[in-house]
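Milestone M4 deliverable, item 7.
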Amino acid sequence: MTTAAPQPGAPTTDPAPLALEPASGLDRLGPPTLPCVIDVEASGFGAGSYPIEVGLALPDGRAWCTLIRPAAGWTHWDGRAEALHGITRALLEQHGREVNEVAQELNRQLAGRTVYCDNWAHDYAWLARLFEAAGLRPAYRLQHLRQLLDDERLARFDATRDAVLQRLALGRHRASNDARALQMSVAALCRPGPRPR
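Output delivered:
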């Protein structure tokens, strides 16, 4: 199914739930459910980098994504990171949402949840910088996706994610697409039935 690409910077909500069997067999997930997953794109790596896009894949299958206008003093920019995510600083200035608006929306959508990511050290630092600039505290708990997977599933995670990305054939790099792919990878690894060889 092909859908029109969202306008740059506009929050996106995908009302179509994922067509996956419920996850099961993973005690730490609790009742059959999809994990809530977040992904962050940034201006670069290391000191001075900051979040420029955040995307969610929610347990009910909806997705949300927005660009973030850099706060005052956020000047670091790495052209190599731009080459990966395709987001320019000019695009952020034109279509990004203010940091306080993004932080408030994250708290509204994620309040009381445990939210999972695949790059905890960077994502934690970037989200902390967002919330600090907004003068707010996160209303959710951030954990690494590996908390959901046992060693056997962790060993198959990269191959599973690659297969999910190939199946999704995402034409545009968006944080919500990355979050969706991570969510579907965890669900595929936790689905009952024969294991892929």
